[in-house]
Amino acid sequence: MSTFTAIILVCLSSVSPDxxxxxxxxxxxxxRVASELGCVTGWQEIMxxxxxxxxxxxxxxxxxxxxxxxxxxxx
Length: 75
Known about the structure:
Blueprint: E1 4-12, E2 27-33, H1 44-48, E3 60-68
Antiparallel strand pairs: 1-2, 1-3
């Protein structure tokens, strides 16, 4: 069964969405999910508890990347 990794990037509003990646983000979080749908759902709770949650939408924004995990990879 394939698994995926949801990578959640917190980027400054001054960084364009095209330039927002793991190297330009001010915070990067990731979690293993069972499907591509899991990449866009479920992680909101994680970010809502983050210290900088109040800044999301004001000085920062979120971007999600979904990557297929290599076969046989485990946590």
